[in-house]
Amino acid sequence: MDRVVDLGDVCDLGPVRAALAEAFRQSRDRIDAVAYMERHELLDAVERVGRALDHHLAEAVAAARVETIDQAALFAEAYGAVGLDLPPDVLDHVRAAQVMAWRRAVPRPDAGEGLARAPGTRLVLRVPPAAAGAEEPLLEHLGLEGAFDRVVAGS
Known about the structure:
alpha/beta, 2 domains
């Protein structure tokens, strides 16, 4: 039998959310710079997309769900829709910034107490899909490496 524990049960996501929002803004600024240098003719469309993305971010921050946004996928889709195909190095930077933001997680003081296992129970950690690629460093940062039998993405 599996016992599923949500990431928010073992750490405070507040600092992560703030870092993800900042990573979002910095990545968007970098994309604007790429558009300015490489696709000057698309600037009006890029600015409209940027305003829409800023609105999307503001809503996500207000709803405390910024950790659910896969920033690289969102940027690639939104800017691609207006003809700005983001170079792989820009998308890699977005992903790296998002992974680094997860290192801002603060372990809850009682996190270890809630991880007791009943005999025959496997402990599963559920992380937001946007945390893909950050699971191992995040667990290490929280001092929880090896505490879970499996990590799954879900909401």
